[in-house]
Amino acid sequence: MSFTAKVLFDYTAVEDTELSVSKDAIVVVEEVNDSGWCLARLGTAAGWIPLDYVEKITAASAPSAAQPAAPANSTTVDEVNDAMKHLVMASSSAAPADPNAKKCHACGGVLETSFVLAKDYYFHTDHFKCKGCGENLSGKPFVEKDGEFYCEEDYYNSFNPRCGHCNEIIKGEYITALNKSWHPDHFVCAVCSKPFEGSQFRKHDDKPYCDEHYAELFKVECATCGKNIVGQVFEALGKKYHLDCFVCAEGNHQIGHNGSFNVHEGKIYCPQHFEEAVLNRCAGCKQLIKGPFIKILNTHFHPDCWKCKECNGPISTNNVAEHQSNFYCKPCHAKVSAGAGSAPASAASAASASSASAPAPAAAITTPKPTDTDVELKAKAALAKIQAEKEAKAKAEEEAKSKPKAPVSTEVFEVDYSLLSDPSKCPSTVDSAKKEMYLSAAQFKEKFKMDLKAFQALPAWRQKKIKMDLKLF
């Protein structure tokens, strides 16, 4: 909707689309845009002028644009304007406050004289200022955000990102990558400065690289196949692998990123093949031994599988004997030994007579066979060890029940890290698979950079890698 307005300041057009006007001229405003400019008409000329350069005149007090020109002896335009100003001021002072009167968006005061209209907000001419720098925005380009107005420079400084390459404020389109924003023509390889084909790139230290220079600068060889790894890298035991190349040494099948594995003599095994290739089998039940065992004369038994060869009854520390590499309870051992028989009396006498007439042979070196007493002592020692382990385990479990949140060590003594990390100095009583459990709480936290509970919460492969790095595996 058009309205009549009075020009408050002189304005000289800068572009062809603008209109030059003089102070106090009366114009007809035909259009107002969102940038604070209005399309004004003065006679037959029309163009854009700043909206805050004009003051709206009410229809009741303004001269009609369609009225014919006044005679030469009539009142001048300036006189008419002065009269209207005094009339408006007089009527406003006498009339009560208008509840619908326009108010300044900045100060909340009633707009009684000239004002600025911007984005449906009204301002006193001297209150239309940049939120950032405080400069008056009258007649200048501005940007509105959430009811606040800014000059272009402060708006871009406050809300637009900076380019990750040149660090300049981005005022147009941009690319987001590596947690940064980039001018489209600045997102290029950090080495050759060429744009990426198909938007595919490699990253290292938050910098983008093309495939060629990434492979050249950061080449990673697979520990299995020796080829360069491009893409996902799997790291274990201080080495890097293609995920497809991280396989079991026995079955040659993939273990997978989240799969558990065991290491023995530098080889990687899945749990199943580790048990089959490394663990001992019980001489009694022929099953793999995964817990306590008895070792007698290089033979391994589950504690419950160490039985009499004859009657299949359990053997105790006080009831064991050996005959021809087999173990018997003492009653059966006596029977088996007696059943083996002794030489007949006549044969024995003949042998005695023959030996009496024959010359005495030279002394011979003989190796005595293990006696029943030796076997019994070894068996007692083995079972005593098992019993001690069971008692220690039961004690640890009892302590764990009373203190469920406290990590409980299965060992009852502490060993210094310098001894645990040196195979030549490590005590023989230390379980080589659980060396970390022998460290004091202070040494554990110092070396592992975490407490025992946090370490035990890690995946098995991650625990093994840390232990390998600390020479505790």
Structure description:
- The protein has 473 residues and is α+β, with helices and mostly antiparallel strands.
- The chain is built from eleven helices and 21 strands.
- A five-stranded antiparallel beta sheet has the order 4-3-2-1-5, with no helix packed on it.
- The longest helix has 31 residues, at 372-402.
CATH class of the largest domain: Mainly Beta
Q: Which fold name is given in CATH as the topology of the largest domain?
A: SH3 type barrels
N- to C-terminal separation?
86 Å
Largest sheet: 5 strands, antiparallel
The largest sheet has its strands arranged as: 4-3-2-1-5
Number of domains: 5
CATH architectural arrangement of the largest domain: Roll
Helix content, binned percent: 25-40%
Looking at CATH, the homologous superfamily of the largest domain is SH3 Domains
Radius of gyration: 50 Å
Shape: elongated
Count of DSSP helices? Answer: 11
User: What structural class results from the helix and strand content?
Assistant: alpha+beta
Nearest-integer average pLDDT: 75
Number of strands: 21
Write the layout of secondary structure elements.
Blueprint: E1 3-7, E2 26-32, E3 37-42, E4 45-50, E5 54-56, H1 77-94, E6 115-118, E7 121-124, E8 142-145, E9 148-151, H2 152-159, E10 175-177, E11 180-182, E12 202-204, E13 207-209, H3 211-217, E14 234-236, E15 239-241, E16 262-264, E17 267-269, H4 271-278, E18 294-296, E19 299-301, E20 321-323, E21 326-328, H5 330-340, H6 345-357, H7 372-402, H8 417-420, H9 441-448, H10 452-456, H11 460-469
Antiparallel strand pairs: 1-2, 1-5, 2-3, 3-4, 6-7, 8-9, 10-11, 12-13, 14-15, 16-17, 18-19, 20-21
